[in-house]
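ESCALATION

Customer reports they have been waiting on this structure for their group meeting. Please prioritize. Original submission:
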Amino acid sequence: MSSSPTRERIKSSDINLKLLRRPEWLKVKGRTGGEYAAMLQLMREKDLNTVCEEAACPNLGECWGHGTATFLILGDVCTRSCGFCDIKHGMPAPLDWQEPARVAQAARSMRLKHAVITSVNRDERQDGGAPLFAMVIRDIHELVPGCSVEVLIPDFKGSRQALKIVMDANPEILNHNVETVAGLYAAVQKQDHLEWSRDTLVNAKRLNPDVLTKSGLMVGLGETLEEIQQTMTELRRWEVDILTIGQYLQPSRRHLPIRRYYTPDEFEFLKQYGMELGFRWVESAPLVRSSYHAAEQVDALASVPVKSTEDI
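Update from on-call: job pushed to the front of the queue and completed.
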């Protein structure tokens, strides 16, 4: 791989660890307006959950104000307890097999062109809830012709069989977030394993090379820029097409602390680094989350060529 200024390592000694007061560039929009109210009413009428609410997403006001949301299926209680996540954890209720149909109906009511579906972990089930992902993909494709579907799935403990259930339903984008660098996995998401994430993303491409794969990183948990770059390089080796990078924001004092804030210039640096690695799309900014600008990514990628990973 040829070298360039963008590819130069930035030493951890260059990081300003004192920038812990929330900076100006992290201000978020309020939750107001007619579209926001209409979205809230629709979710309540359909008895649906959104990760926007459950995970306290900072972009909720902006996204709901534009009539977009990320549906949360398989209930609202997770069987894992990651140190960064604000979703409730414990023993979840039985699966609601009517939920996929209600999500599809909501997608039709919203006249969506791109639907994003995610879930809690359901480790008490051998299939991890994969059949409901498949159902909601098929229901949306049938009920909302022309609407593409992006699924942000758990790792299913690396199960290829569970993943195949989802892939056989033909989502347009298969998303699974690694969340953090390898060295922080045990501290940040103690019940997860990097190998499970790797198998999920690699096997998705093997099962259907035409499906776009996507992953995401949070920064500010104590990693170095070198470690972020190493993780990005590894994701490209796994043939991931789309990458999102955003600032970790502590949901409450009981969650993992913020170790540092990255600047907009650093996020721009990471975006350029990712594009040079060969990602087809990189969304990198302080408030970026996994589904941020997801519909725009689908439109833009229609004409973006695939780059080889041979030289990485």
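Sent to customer with the following note: The mean pLDDT is 83.
Escalation resolved.
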